[in-house]
Amino acid sequence: MAKHSQFRLLGQRRFLPFYLTQFSGAFNDNLYKNALLLLVTFNAGGLMGLSVNVVVNLAAFLFILPFFLFSGIAGQLADHFEKSRIIRNVKLAEIVIMGLAAIGLWFGWYELLLLLLFLMGVQSTFFGPVKYAILPQVLADDELVGGNGLVGMGTFVAILLGTIAAGLLMGFETAAKLTAVAVLVMAVLGYLAARQVPVTGNHGADIAIRFRPVKETRNLMTLAAERRPVMLAVLAISWFWFLGAAYLTQFPNFARINLLGDETVVTLLLAMFTIGISIGSMLCERLTKHHISLVPVPWGALGLSLLGIDLFFAVPDSPVSSTWWTLVTDPVYLRVLLDLMGIGICGGLFIVPLYAFIQHETPRDKRARIIAALNVINALFMVVSALTGILVLGVLEVSIPGFFLLLSMLNAVVLLVVWRLRRSETVKPVDN
User: Where found, per UniProt (predicted)?
Assistant: First the structure.
């Protein structure tokens, strides 16, 4: 097949409707979640007698809990049923959930909104396995890295835009009602895009569907461990989410304490990190020359460590009050921005080839369940990331730049793992 740019996929029905569907979902998740947290923080001042800090952490727990409970059955369904059908049903469920959320936002029923955050997590759990398992069925091998790059870029841009949109809406007196309309409209647009996703065919009718959350989650781990290279790739991706969650969680305090910045600085840090990941994701197709290859992965891992170490030394010892303009014009602060963008670029180089590798090296009838296993491990690593942050920053009282330095040093171990994986990779045709 002729080697064309990955962007041509955005003009083709086999890819564009799916891309718009996953983009709208990631945008809506973050718009709703961040708007809810901002409303609870600034309007409700807590919930059910709980402090704001407790409610914020409870919300994060409620969103991530479904990945542990329902990934097993989500993987089974995605391997059993035709995937475009699942996508449409999941997006239809999103309309129902966001319709209830719109009512809750309109009338200020925050307890209901927390419950619906859990249901949004359930919806995301069932979409996750289909999101990556469908790509090898609609893309050729020489398009798989580029397609994953577009999905990775779209996901992080949607997260950024959803977060920014939530903040902008809070500037209006009718913020809750505007958010109610926005999340419902986005859910409907996502469903309309999902209706255009072409049928992929049903290839796993013999796979049994069992609702046994704990046992099926354990079975997912066993399935993922059947091939050592695939399991190593799964763990490497989960490490990236550990690392990414650690950086993103600390941005607000990092901006406030270490850069003496305002809220515009937090947004700029998030934007630079996201732009970096998008650039790295887009570079992967060119660097792999349209082949499924792990060549960029060790270089991405190396960059994550080196730039993370440089970030530690780039943070000024005696910061001055700053805005976003200070960061882009002052060479001292500009170095911090460039390090964060570089970390994002290296993250894109690191994660996109690993996703393509897992998709290609996994048999079609097990692919969605292995992606579901990846989602469980991702969720686990992000929980451990939060606990690590609490331990290192709260108990051991390490500074945030010191925490970033520690993460960069730990990443050196991951570099050794992915280097060995790269040296031993043998990408051969699998039952696709």
Answer: Cell membrane
